TrEMBL record:
Residues 365-377 have a biased composition (Basic and acidic residues). GO terms for cellular component: membrane. It comes from Acidihalobacter yilgarnensis. Residues 72-233 form the Band domain. This is Protein HflK. HflC and HflK may interact to form a multimeric complex. HflC and HflK could encode or regulate a protease.
Amino acid sequence: MPWNEPGKNNSGNQDPWGNGRRSGGGSSNPLDLEKWLRRLIDKLRTGGSGGGSPTPAILLAVVVALVAWLASGFYIVGPGERGVVLRFGAFTETSLPGPHWHLPYPIEQVHVVDIDQNRSEQSKAVMLTQDENIVDVDVSAQYRVKNAEEYLFNVRDPNQTLRDVLVSAIREIVGKSKMDYVVGEGRADIALRTQALMQHTLDGYKIGLEVIKVNLQDAQPPEQVQSAFADAIKAREDEVRYRNEADGYANTVIPQARGQAAREQEEAQAYKQRVVARAQGDASRFDQLLKEYEKAPKVTRERLYLDTMQSVLENSSKVLIDSKGKNILYLPLNNLPKGTSSTAQDPAAVASSAAAADAGPMQAERQRRDLRNREVH
């Protein structure tokens, strides 16, 4: 039976909250919250007894509970983190790394966000290129939190939003590129353009995220045509390799040619200086010879003739013949220019040996010619 319900055992005011029926009858008074709190405090002081001093155990428990409640407001923000303080669910401030204190729950609460951690999202999908070809693209994005307040409050699910923005951006960039460019040399450029487009979109959302890098991990045509595209890619790689080899050969040959040209120029300059110096020396010598010729023409001509004959005959093979002799000489002219051994022999000794070898048969022939000549004269 309720305490405030009329009954034989409830004739008096037995309601513990103090709002039972009055002894005189009539209707009950409404609940007085202030009186109730005052009576509760009085009961805590007296320990539930009718009077006296408060129980020490109860006071100690209250003090300990209050201290523990206040101590729960201490928190530490680590390096690379930010603490977002909320008061009754509304943003109040952002705490930097270090120890801090806030009003305990449920008045205030803190959300600690790591802004130095690199996070990643990955997506793999089939996309359509500008030239209406299908390509399988595997792309990933690395990002981090740059604004803790925006990250917590502006978007319901920031990570899912970034994943959607990644797929949308890569589809747009691939849709504006040709397939050969996507699967070939354009991967790095597509990744950079995707990163820029993602960051622009996220800044518009004020999501508090920064895209660090976008990696186009794989871009392949459909399996049915992969062999044909592999051949085309190999041909492009061969082209790049041959071009690099040609550049390397040019880088090797051109410095050598330049060095050789410089050396030949130096040799030509030295030859020029040598020829000019020789010509100047000859001209000076001729001027001096002219002066000597004017003084003694006959002696000078004789000297020039002898010098000329000496310079001509000293480097040539010579055969000396006695013009008054009537011997027939055997001169092997075809063997005279051969070797130094032939030219080093004395021409007179060669002629004498040849004449002595043929003296027998040729002497009779010579006598017959002499007789024939006498008859003619």
